[in-house]
Amino acid sequence: MSTVYNFSAGPGVLPAPVIKQIQKELTSFHGSGMSILEISHRSTLFENVIDNAKQDLKDLMQVPDNYQILFFQGGGTGQFAAAPMNLASKHHRLALLDSGHWASKAHDEAIKLGYQVDVLDSTKSEHYHELPHLSLTFNQKNDDYLHVTINNTIEGTTYHQINNPTHLPLVGDMSSNFLAERYSVKDFGMIFAGAQKNLGPAGVTIVIVRDDLLKKVPKIPSILDYSLFAKKNSLYNTPPVFSIYAAGLVLKWLKKQGGVDVMESHNRKQSKMMYDFLDQSKLFRNDVKPSDRSLTNTIFTTGDQKLDLQVAKEATQHGLMSIKGHRSVGGLRASFYNAMPTAGVQSLIDFLHDFEKKH
Ligand SMILES: *Cc1c(COP(=O)(O)O)cnc(C)c1O
User: What are the strands, taking DSSP E only, across 156-218?
Assistant: First the structure.
């Protein structure tokens, strides 16, 4: 079989050496004679896995000592409920920037659970081709925190700089650019990310939360309870053992590549190749404001729905997988997560170039 490149937005591409290592040690984990799929989460074997993953993540992101690293199930969607339940217990009210699909999902979940949501700015009328921003005059004292989708997976936009002029703790949804570019953890009260976009297989969600925000909140489900998970080292109940193990291997791989800064320049280089191609193309285009363009998710289109579908279909025949845009917006999308090699991006550009010549 010829080389296949996976541009899926999630679950996304994983580093090939990690997949090999999983295969190699699947039948006997660390010489134990047991598979990682069947060992106890209370065993020393697994305690080492979770402690190493935490330490590696702490090193890679330079997580300060006054933050907890927690592992949950339930994905990013679970955190749309968990964040207000844990962090909005005082005023039952949060602020949010409406930057697209996932911000709107977070909004709706909070409303459903009875919280008030102040939408401070929205770029809906610009089709989310640029990011909403906080006005400097904003002064909302009754919100418990500010929710921002740091990378908009579907609209292809990213806050590359964190600018929070409010006194509200910032809650950052980094599901699709976690460890893809450098952020300073101390700019955030809480960061969350479902693993399956840029970190590992589906099943585990990372939460990084500042100690002073951890409160004992009554009547919150135990599986969403930050302070309980912090107290129990994320081992209150059975955690997603395999997903944490696999994410841990990716963290080791990232360290070996040189860490987040090296990854960021790799991602910048690759996304620039793609945007440069799109900007000179006469068939394809990307409508996102250049300074807001995502490094991990590039959206593009011919402007013709039927032709876009044909592009995606022909790409598949060339081993270039999953470039169809999200069903809510149509068009095309290529995700360049950390594990995407430059050869994959080049193959995609070459294919699009040839397609353009034929049309
Ligand atoms: C995918 C995604 C989510 C939802 O994640 P699930 O793990 O599928 O619940 C939330 N936010 C962003 C930015 C995403 O890309």
Answer: 157-158, 170-173, 190-194, 205-210
CA of 205 to the centre of ligand 1 (A): 10
Tell me the HSE value of 135 on the side-chain side, using a 13 A CA sphere: 8
* Residue 325 CB less than 6 A away from ligand 1: no
The pTM of this model reads 0.97
Residue 203 phi, psi (nearest 5) = 125, -20
Give the right CATH number for 259-358 from 3.40.50.20, 3.10.290.30, 3.90.1150.10, 3.40.50.2300.
3.90.1150.10
Angle, CA 241 vertex, CA 240 and CA 247 arms, to 5°? 90
Q: Where are the alpha helices (DSSP H) in the chain?
A: 16-24, 44-61, 75-87, 101-112, 226-231, 241-257, 260-280, 305-317, 342-358
Every domain of the chain and the residues it spans: 17-257, 259-358
Please state, rounded to an integer, the average pLDDT across all residues of the chain.
Answer: 96
Q: Which of 72, 77, 80, 174 to mutate to test the pocket of ligand 1 (most atoms within 8 A of CB)?
A: 77
Task: Assign domain 17-257 to its CATH architecture.
Answer: 3-Layer(aba) Sandwich (3.40)
Q: Is the pLDDT of residue 137 over 80?
A: no
From CA 205, how far away is CA 258, in angstroms rounded? Answer: 24
